[in-house]
Amino acid sequence: MSTIPLDEPSERPFEEAIDFDYSLTRWRTLFNLLLTGLSGLATVVALIPLISVLYMLVSHGLARLTEVSVFTALPPTGKDVGGGFGNALQGTLVMVAVASLLSVPFGILVAVYLAEFGKDSTTASVVRFAAKILTGLPSIIAGVFAFAILVMHTGRSSFAGGVGLAVLMLPTIILTAEEALLQVPRKMREAAYGLGCTHTQVVLRVVLPTAIPNIVTGVMLGVARAAGETAPLLFTAAFSYFWLNKLMQPTASLAVFIYRYSGVPYERQVELAWAASLVLVTLVLTINVLAQLITRRAHAHR
Amino acid sequence: MSPALTTDDIIINAKIHKLFYGNFFAVRDTHLAIHHNKITAFIGPSGCGKSSVLRCLNRMNDLVRNFRVEGSVFFRSKDIYAPRVDPVAVRRHIGMVFQQPNPFAMSIFDNVAFGLRLHGMTRDLADRVELALRRAALWDEVKNKLKQSGLALSGGQQQRLCIARAIAPEPAVLLMDEPCSALDPIATGKIEELMKDLKSRYTIVIVTHNLQQASRVADMTGFLYVDTKQGGRTGYLVEYDRTEAIFQDPRDPLTRQYIAGAFG
Ligand SMILES: Nc1ncnc2c1ncn2[C@@H]1O[C@H](COP(=O)(O)OP(=O)(O)OP(=O)(O)O)[C@@H](O)[C@H]1O
Ligand SMILES: [Mg+2]
């Protein structure tokens, strides 16, 4: 306890002249400027790779993109000069859809278990730990896994590719969805119980609908990652020069298309790989930006 | 004001002998009868167990891990703490309004319709929603924006929305835990008016830190107390009587001190 009586007058006398003005000679002002300058510089340096990659993609890829046929034509073989990556675009979309159909419902169910039912149980901790480890899984291992459980038995297919991508997406979806569920305020849950909800009704009618925008963001980030992956597809879906018409056949994808066509000695085909890269990057960036927008809108309504 | 209360119109009869959170003995010997279509207020210093007792009345405390109560709470002729009772069913008859407004992240209409849909009362849904909003004195302010998010309302409007949501399924009793503590005096005044209007249809039990509020709205008042200075940790009901009696002529010296202290 302080021994100074409460009614003692302040020891600091009233200062007649207080200097509130900026002064460059003051150490803290200088330090402030220095640090602001440094961090600004670091930001610019960090942006250089991003901007140069984008510049390179646009400068090399844009030319061929003006030909609409690249989106609809099949990949060229040998010295062909025409052609496009229509089937690769189709394959990427189909495989990402397959991966989403597998991983989104499953991932959300696991997240609901973790956040609402398992909570601190040993099972929940183990699953959570496994999911965290799996987010760092090298993507080629996801491919090896799909190869082992599917390709060995049924051959290369877009379904196997989808499974490989789903393995990659699953941990991201589980962890972001759990986070989203946990963010639903306690007071909303209380209100639901107070109205006579069972635990399941609280989850289905209040917690999940409230968390949906954030869950969608997590899903989209997972989708964006899956769309850009090459490694899980290399030996699961492999490649094809034809349109995809059933799930259980080898399938082209943008990522593998780029991998194959960027190394060939024919200039026109390398250009096509650049164009496909630009398309893929645009796709991934769009999904990312959409995810950000959804989160921001959801928070504006909180 | 209130005529002599008979035992016929008792809707809840609570006999809380002991109330624990884990090993912590929070409340003892709190016996009180809640009268039908009356407003009953619980007052007392912070930590004396007002919320704990209130949340026993609709088994909200069941959500707290390690919570335990010895005693009985009769709602009409049924002990809601009897072994086979489903707490979820109890809460359908005894609704609750919380200290912090807590609308759901959905439209104003869906907020009010929530309990109705939950209990399958979907006939004339729009009419019932309107009625609840009118009773909660919110209709005129929101009738043109029923599709907007409930979270976009002001604090006082949100609290009235929560009241509308709670009364829409027509519970018999409405429990309110410091419903005005997050509101400004104007919004508080509106909610107090509202409580007086509502009591012809619902029995209301309210916890409040505001003694003037208790004296303004309540028919019956219970004073709970815990003397932490003397090392006591267990709260109990000191006195329970008609509000005028509690405020003008309390029998217990503790009540007198508390009322005098808070007013003086
Ligand atoms: N969930 C809980 N777990 C453990 N102890 C609790 C819990 N809720 C309340 N308590 C304890 O029980 C005692 C009574 O709490 P309660 O919330 O009922 O008091 P109150 O009269 O409502 O206080 P206030 O006026 O501050 O809201 C307090 O000592 C509190 O710390
Ligand atoms: Mg309280």
Provide structural commentary.
The complex is a heterodimer of chains A (302) and B (264). Helix content of chain A is 70%, strand content 0%. Chain A is an all-alpha fold. Chain A has one domain (70-74, 84-301): MetI-like fold (Orthogonal Bundle), CATH 1.10.3720.10. In chain A, helix 2 runs parallel beside helix 5, helix 4 (139-154) crosses helix 5 (158-182) and helix 5 crosses helix 7. The longest helix of chain A has 39 residues, at 27-65. Chain A is flat and about 95 Å long. In chain A, 37% of the residues are buried. Chain B has 264 residues and is α/β, with parallel strands linked by helices. Chain B has one domain: Rossmann fold. In chain B, strands 5-4-1-2-10-9-3-8-7-6 form a ten-stranded mixed beta sheet, with helices on both faces. Chain B is globular. In chain B, a hairpin with a 2-residue loop joins strand 4 (67-75) and strand 5 (78-79). The structure holds adenosine-5'-triphosphate (ATP) and magnesium ion. Residues 21, 24, 26, 44, 46-52, 64 of chain B line the site of adenosine-5'-triphosphate.
Into which percent range does the helicity of residues of chain B fall?
A: 25-40%
Pick out the low-confidence regions of chain B. Answer: none
Let me know the largest β-sheet of chain A.
Answer: none
Under CATH, the topology of chain B can be stated as Rossmann fold
Order of helices and strands of chain B: EEEHEEHEHHHHEHEHEEHH
Percentage of residues in helical conformation of chain A: over 70%
CATH topology of chain A: MetI-like fold
Number of helical elements of chain B: 10
**Overall pLDDT score of chain B:** 89
- Largest interface: chains, residues each: A-B, 19 and 28 residues
**Termini of chain B, distance in Å?**
25 Å
Q: Which CATH C-level class of chain A is it?
A: Mainly Alpha
Secondary-structure arrangement, i.e. CATH architecture of chain B: 3-Layer(aba) Sandwich
What is the residue-averaged pLDDT of chain A?
A: 89
Tally the helices of chain A: what do you get?
10
Number of domains of chain B: 1
Q: What small molecules are bound in this structure?
A: adenosine-5'-triphosphate, magnesium ion
Parts with pLDDT < 50 across at least 5 consecutive residues of chain A: none
Strand count, sense and barrel status of the largest sheet of chain B are: 10 strands, mixed
Broad shape of chain A: flat
- How far is the first residue's CA from the last residue's CA of chain A? 43 Å
